[in-house]
Design brief:
42% of the residues lie in helices and 31% in strands. The chain has 134 residues and is of the alpha+beta class.
């Protein structure tokens, strides 16, 4: 009687192990990519907020020093805000308090970078109210 040697039995567990390890590797790579995108968009969000805040300060300076309350646009091309654009709008009301007339300015700023609908698009909208009262 001769003994039959089984061949190919270890192939099934080996293939199973390879498939499981490949799946775990693909999941780890995907998680890493998503984490990097989250960090980048978080930084872009902070930059958009800074650009909008800069637009508010620019419009507030114009309103308080020049009495000019209107719409304006800024495009940043240098420094940390390069690539961002800002649109500002301003409305004012006048109030009489005793012998003084006080102007109150409401300023809105919308800052963005990229094209809407694209993965790198980011925007922020903020507003502030300032007055020329002493």
């Amino acid at each position: 009687m001769s003994m039959r040697i089984q061949k190919g039995f270890s192939l099934v567990p080996a293939l199973f192990l390879i498939i499981v390890l490949a799946g775990l590797g693909a999941a780890a790579v995907r998680i890493s990519v998503v984490q990097q995108q989250t960090v980048v968009l978080g930084m872009q969000s902070a930059r958009a907020f800074s650009a909008a805040r800069s637009g508010l300060e620019w419009a507030a300076y114009d309103a308080l020093n020049n009495g000019s309350c209107g719409s304006g646009s800024l495009s940043y091309s240098e420094g940390g805000l390069a690539g961002f654009s800002v649109n500002t709008t301003c409305s004012s009301t006048s109030h009489t308090e005793g012998a003084l007339t006080v102007n109150v300015y409401t300023i809105n700023a919308f800052a963005w970078s990229g094209a809407y609908g694209q993965p790198d698009y980011v925007s922020r909208r903020i507003s502030m109210t300032v007055t020329d009262a002493s």
